[in-house]
Amino acid sequence: MKGLIAAMACALVATSAACASSDDEASAQGETRVFQADNGEVTIPADPQRVVATGYAVPALIEAGAPLVGISSWQRGEPMMDPEDLATYEELPKVAGELAAETNYEAIANVRPDLIVIGVPAPVLKDIDMDRLEQIAPVVAIGPTVPSAWRELSYRQADAAGALDGFNETKKRYEKKAAELKEKYQDVLPGLKLAHVGAYGEVGKGNFQREFNGSWGTNVANDIGADYYGEVKEKGGGSRDVSEYPSLEELPTLFAEADAITYTVNADGSVPESVEYVLNSDLWKNLPAVKAGQTYPVRYTEAATYGQALKALEALDESFAPLLEQ
C-alpha cells in the first residue's frame, strides 16, 4: 500500500512538474515587448521562434543565427557570404524576390512566422502591402539610411529577432581586427588625403561616383584610419549625403589634391564597367596620385554586416600593404 501511495505521489509530482514546465513555455511564448521600428512602435514576441527577413535583414540575420523560416532573395550579397552562411541562404525558402514589390504574401503566410523583419529603405515601403503582412505576423521595418549606418541597422535587426548573442560575437571580431589594422597603418594611412571612385557611376551619362567618408567604399577604411577629403556639394539624402556624381571632365580638378586614390572592384577583383570607364581615361592616367602609383583597389565595398566587413578589412590590408614599404 505504501508503495502504491509513493508511486502515486511521484506520478503527481512528475505531472505537476510537466504542467509547470508547459505553463512556463506557454508563458514565454506569449511574452511580448514594444519595439521601435521605422513603421512606429510595434508589439513583437520577446523571444521570436519563426522569423521572416527581407532586404538588408537577410544577411544580418543569417549571420547572427536568427531562427529564420523564410527570406527574400539577396543575390547582391552572395559573394560576401562565407560558405556556412551561403549554405543557409540557399536552403531557406525564398518568400520574396530582390525587389520589395516582389513580396509573396501567400508564401510568407505558409511558413507561419511570428515576426517579419523588413530591411528596405523607408521610401520603398510603399511597394509593400504592410496591412496584409501585419495580418500574418508583427512587422518591423528596419531599413538602411546612409551606407555607414549598417552597424546600427544590423544591431536593431538582430535585436528584434532575438539574435544579439551571435551579432555581438561577430562584432567583437570585427572591432578587434579593425583595431589591429589601425595600429598597423597608423604611421602611413592617417596622413594621406584620399579620394575614392565608387561603382555606381553612369557611363551613359558620362559621370562617375565620388565617395566621401562614410560611404559604401570608404566607411570600413575609415575604421582603420583612412580619411577621404571633401564632402558633397549638396546632400540628397541616403547615400547621396556621402557621395556625388560629377562628370568625368571634372576628375582632374576634383582629385588634384589626392595623395592616393582607392577604387571599388568586385568581390573577385574584376573591375566594374563604371569604374573601368574612369580608369581607362587619359584624365585618370594624368592624375598626380595615379602617376605616383598611389592607387588601390577595394573589394567588398557593399559590406552591410560585421562578417562581411571583416572580409573588407582583410581586402584593405591586402591593398594597403605596399604603403608600409614606401
Automatic annotation (TrEMBL):
Its main location: other. Keywords: Signal, Transport. It comes from Saccharomonospora viridis. The keyword Transport applies. Belongs to the bacterial solute-binding protein 8 family. This is ABC transporter substrate-binding protein. It is found in: Cell envelope. Pfam families: Peripla_BP_2 (PF01497). The keyword Signal applies.
